[in-house]
Amino acid sequence: MEIDARIESVPAGWHNDRLHFFKYMTASTAKIVLENRTLRWSTASLLNDPFDMQFDMTIDIDRDKFQKAVMEKTWGLYASDQPIPAANELGIMMELLRRSPEKLSKEEFYEEFGAATFEGYDRMLAAIPKTNEDARPHIETNKVLSLTTAPNNNLMWTHYADGHSGVVLRFRSIPELDSPYGMAKPMNYVDEVPHLFSEEELVDIAAGISNIDVRAILDKIIYTKSSDYSYEREWRISTGSGRTADPFEDIPFGLNELDGIVFGLNTSDVDRAEIEALAAKYPNVEFMHTARAKLGLEIKSSLT
After folding, report:
1. Cα gap 151→160, rounded to integer Å
2. What mean pLDDT value characterizes the chain?
3. Residue 33, CB half-sphere, CA atoms under 13 Å: how many?
4. Cα torsion for 210, 215, 221, 225, to the nearest 10°?
5. At how many degrees (to 10) do helices 63-79 and 106-141 cross?
6. pTM (2 decimals)?
7. Tell me, what's the pLDDT at 304?
8. What is the residue range of 36's domain?
9. Does the residue 58 lie in any domain?
10. Which SS3 state, helix, strand or coil, does residue 41 take?
11. What pLDDT digit, counting tens, does each position of 100-152 carry?
12. Measured between alpha carbons, how far is 219 from 12 in angstroms, rounded to an integer?
């Protein structure tokens, strides 16, 4: 099996070109999934990591360094003859100021706006608690589907597939069916809580040429996880709060989207037979199994 196969023609709006994603589960869960033809999308409260999507972000940039960067940026805009891409009130004001017949020298410009940059920085710091507070309700109700690109990971088989007694389901992105897997994004594994804005983003906002991107803030929370979990090689799909207020929803997937089942080293003959019988209604399923290799696990077709 080619684990990292790619789609040749990627539809507009898709976030990746992967052909397959994988989902570990116990044998009992697999039987339910195959019987109902649904996958469970869950909120943060049901995920295995107690910190997943449940952290507050901060700003970390030296105040003096910030002022210097903002002043250099705004002076460059003011002194340029190119239109200022004004995104907020400061950017609009800067464009109007530049059109004034009375031109400021660099020294006058710094004297006029230097104190304002410190005030802007302080306002941003003061606004952080509310920004995190405003994001929290969206995150608490946001449902995600967690997938992986590593179907041969020993730890994953141990943790999520009942000690190699379960299975891995393989799902195929089908552009013609607008499969949701094309919306999956890789997790960003970090050792520390990410900052609300990068230094460059913060300077651009303070200079008036960029706005606070709420969607980007939410994405940082949704697609960030502790580096302790990097072995999972998780990709995640997030589409919002779903259709109900419940902490999870079981969403149908297409018959043709499930195109492979990998049985574990310890999957029982009884479970395997039941799963194969349930999979009979899926027209394109390839049956595979894991095997011991010198450096871990390999996946082999069950036809060989």
Report:
1. 11
2. 89
3. 23
4. -90
5. 120
6. 0.84
7. 52
8. 20-53+143-187+223-301
9. no
10. strand
11. 888 889 998 888 888 888 787 787 788 788 877 888 887 888 999 999 999 99
12. 20
